[in-house]
Amino acid sequence: MSDDNSEIAGSDDVEVDGTTGFSTNFEKTDLDDEESNQGLFDDLLSGEPIFENKEVLRPSYTPHELPHRKDQINKMATILVAALRGETPSNILIYGKTGTGKTASAKFVSKELESTSQKYSVPCDVEYINCEVTDTQYRVLAQLANKFIEKNEERIDVRIADLEALLEALDEYDADREARERDAADSAEQTDDQTASDPFDFVSDDTMESRNDGSSETATGGSPRDDSSPHSDGSPPENGGSSDGRDPSTTADGSDPSDGDNADSTGNATAGDSATALPDHPLESTSFESREAVEARIDELEADKESFEEVPMTGWPTDRVYSVFFDAVDYDERVVVIMLDEIDKLVEKSGDDTLYNLSRMNSELENSRVSIIGISNDLKFTDFLDPRVKSSLGEEEIVFPPYDANQLRDILEHRSDVAFQGGALSEDVIPLCAAFAAQEHGDARRALDLLRTAGELAERSQAETIVEDHVRQAQDKIELDRVVEVVRTLPTQSKLVLFSIILLEKNGVHSINTGEVFNIYKRLCEELDADILTQRRVTDLISELDMLGIVNAVVVSKGRYGRTKEISLSVPLEETEAVLLSDSRLSDIDDVQPFVQARFEN
């Protein structure tokens, strides 16, 4: 047995970084054995896929066409077209409930704006910031500064590459010119040598005429002479002479070869010939006067690139971050559109300082111009802004109304044509998804989530078609997922209050009052060694849970005994308890049994 093991280890084990790893020798593996190779995912992949492109059903997808938002898109376009003329567009505030197409429409218009600006070579940059994630002035300015620094570095790299190509063109031009000068010098030297060896250069004009007259008989014979020097008997030269007795320094048509429009003495085209003339100088159509000026500009650009300093996400004074952002934006001549999604979250978290600085930048910028697009779910958030910020920011307002059921149906049909395979949807699926979403303020995002989740549930059950039952299952799942996410992100004190309510309901207590919740809450805090809040503060936490839809708290009058809140759970008990116990701090209180005070029921 040991011999077999040692033989296998010696042949199959792979040593990686001094340790024995998995074997990569598959020669002994029977790959044709389907049963032995049946993996975990094979059964899941065996069915026919329902989705063609699931991504078009996600909120992050920006479609090429947005049904029932043409008016809002056209209004945005008429405002932002000023950027393509090099002017500053008006600031825009976009309002509307969740899922009404605000962000998708704004991204669609901005994408069209950038592509059109490239088409007409008009510098225009659009930057998107989600203020629910980037919710402080420092983070917004730092993120914008780093984005524009990155854009500036990219443009500098392009310019340096163009200038280096210009230097290469200068090198080629200079080399071509030097080659032409050498050829011209060689041609001139060859011409001088031929002239020195021609005896007719030393004969007077009268003698030349008499020789030409005396040779007319031979010339009419049409045979060329074989020598350039005359024989002692007066016979014509054998080489270099012409049969008609013309001077060999002239061409066949009697013209002078020194004419710039004709061939030179070597038979090559002269500089006057357009076919071989030097091309235009590479610097002729540029603003540079010399090679040194080009090299100096490259040095300046490289120095600018080295001077850029990326802003860290923490640690700098805010005024320094703003200064870096300002310089990065103003480095180039361009129009900048800054899109602030969930802008009300930014104002709620850090006030209106960011909006004030951004809206006032144009009075100080020299090269660029800035426009702001704010997107908000809260129609009243501007009521909390400084009047100066409100006047400069809200120059144009666009309201996105909720979708009705018919509009939601059009949106789902438009997306489903791309998202699903043919015949994957039954006829009642899209109308049901639209109806469910229309009940919740016309939320297109909810409708898309329903349709996508229904498709995923059908695919997991290996169904060939999505039916109404899948939509209803998806509705329950999405609601549960929302509850799970809300409960999971609650603060510890709110989790303790909620767990107290769950323990009371598990012990059969109905119409729970605030005092009973507070008594259980105190015991739980003692178990966990956590701070105990006052009963008034616990009442406030119960009200917050009521606003989130996790509990239902109704104020009732007890007559002479005063008023109290009757509390009941609004979410599934077991699933909510499991989420709470997944918190490491609360996982130890599973076995706590609350003391329930006996009471008389009316």
From TrEMBL:
SMART domains: AAA, Cdc6_C. Residues 1-39, 177-292 are annotated as: Disordered. SUPFAM superfamilies: P-loop containing nucleoside triphosphate hydrolases, Winged helix' DNA-binding domain. Residues 1-16 have a biased composition (Acidic residues). The keyword Nucleotide-binding applies. Keywords: ATP-binding, DNA replication, Nucleotide-binding. Signal peptide: none annotated. GO terms for molecular function: ATP binding. GO terms for biological process: DNA replication. Residues 263-273 have a biased composition (Polar residues). Residues 88-404 form the AAA+ ATPase domain. Involved in regulation of DNA replication. This is ORC1-type DNA replication protein. It comes from Natrinema zhouii.
